[in-house]
Amino acid sequence: MKRELRWHEYITININWFNLTTRSQVLTPLIIPLLVQQFVGEANKGSYTGMIRLWALMAALLIQALMGILSDRNTSKFGRRRPFIFVGVVFEVIVIILIGLSAQLEGMSGYWILFGLYILSMVGANISHAATQGLIPDIVSSEKKGLASGIKTLLELPLPLVFASFVVAGMIEQGNLWGAIFALITVMLVAMGLTMLVKEEPLSETPPPTNWTPFFRLLAMTGAFTAIILGSGWAVNQVIRSFGELTGTTQLLVSGITGLLGMGVAVFVGVLLSTAISLGDDRKNQKPFVWWVINRLAFLVGATNFAGFMVFFLQEKFPEYRDGFEVAGPAARITMFIGIFILLSAIPSGWLADKIGKKPLIVLAGLLAGVGAAIIVLAPDMTLTFVGASIAGAGVGFFYSANWALGTEIVPADRAGEFLGLSNLAGAGAGAVGAYIGGPIGDSSGYVLLMSIYGAMALFSIIAVLGIKME
Known about the structure:
Blueprint: H1 9-12, H2 15-40, H3 45-72, H4 82-102, H5 107-132, H6 135-139, H7 145-156, H8 158-173, H9 177-195, H10 213-242, H11 248-279, H12 287-305, H13 310-317, H14 328-356, H15 358-378, H16 382-410, H17 416-420, H18 422-445, H19 447-465
Helix pairs in contact: 2-3, 2-5, 2-8, 2-9, 2-14, 3-5, 3-10, 3-18, 4-5, 4-9, 8-9, 8-14, 10-11, 10-18, 11-12, 11-18, 11-19, 12-16, 12-18, 12-19, 14-15, 14-16, 15-16, 15-19, 18-19
């Protein structure tokens, strides 16, 4: 039996989620794109942002899986999880300081140094992330896991989004990059320090020998998926270049259709190959699961990349944001609106799923995300842009709840961990597909078109729902 927790312990076991979301909302959509733009210039900023995102996400996927295995088996007297959280946060703090120093560099040398540092920051973050997600299962009793998860959601989503939008992004908007970095570092160190107050019970027995097969299988899947993304990106670029003489609406139409098809093929082929590696011949008996992953990955391609290219989109659409770091504030506030409406829509999603069913709710989510994206793309001012962000956020919130609930029904009960673990590949793969293939499209045809493609991917994901046929 797990002991009864005091009220403040529900905060200390979850406070590191505040750190993890804050660093992701400051680095990924704000600091990294703006520094890439500074180093490589306007013409290729999307392509190089996509490249850095691809390799950072693939590294994050592998590091999180590896550190999860190692922290599960850690016999330290300080507990299984806290040593990893401490090391991960301290390591990333050092890397983020180096990222700040890299802002003084110029040209491609600055970019490649940033490239390496950002991957190292993802290593540190995912050492910490893998251990943090083990605290609730380790410490909280079954009847209190709902309470603990609710506090986790609060600390993981709305609070860091508001902080990043109004505090850190405001500093970047004013050109105070070091102020933003020190604010982020303060959050990271305070959250880590509070997490060190968690009372963990060290493992009393030496764990059995490690089964490395799942990790090596994940390694193979990641390599195969990365190859597909690289191949799809190359093919899309070749097609767009071959029609380079086109102009106006025709050129946008060709680029849009090519980009959408490229992302769709990467999603479909990537899932088929990944599930073949993971499940082998059993994949033939798991068609609903395969279509569930396709639906999840297709939707998340747009949802996870909207924020990553938001600064470039706003710079293109609103001339007042084209110079300096002024774009950081409005970009962060759009992300905040999306995040808050994700939370607000997640609350009634269970009731809606019972009323209309999980699959219809997933379809509704795709429609809302698509409509919200369309409003953002067509909005003549920031006020209507915030409205579109709110609608898209509601769609994402419905999707997260309904898609995951449907997945838990589809997977075999005795292999739920193995099957649902593939959803991590969908999450990281979505960011990689949308960024690596989408970045060059933004450079060549504009970020308004790229955001339109992301919205279309949400609509495209609806098709996959038709393949999820429950027995």
